Amino acid sequence: MPKKLSAVILLPGLLAAACTQERPKTVTVDTSCLSFKAISYAQLPAGVVDDLGNVADSDATVAEIEAYNGRWDAVCKK
Fold first, then answer.
1. What is the residue extent of each domain of the chain?
2. Is 31 helix (H, G, I), strand (E, B) or coil?
3. Which of the chain's termini has less CB crowding within 10 Å, N or C?
């Protein structure tokens, strides 16, 4: 068999074998947990309603912070 004909016959087989090889899997490392942290907040003690120094967070703010912290815990806390 001529050399050119042999190359033409073998080439598709070699290409098919090269295309079916498994490629290494890419690993993505999430570094966002190094940049962010859980948020703290201040609430008035139970039964206290006056916030004279305006140091306490509102109930709505506390709820939003707790929701954020829950998501942070699910992703970042080990």
1. 3-76
2. coil
3. C
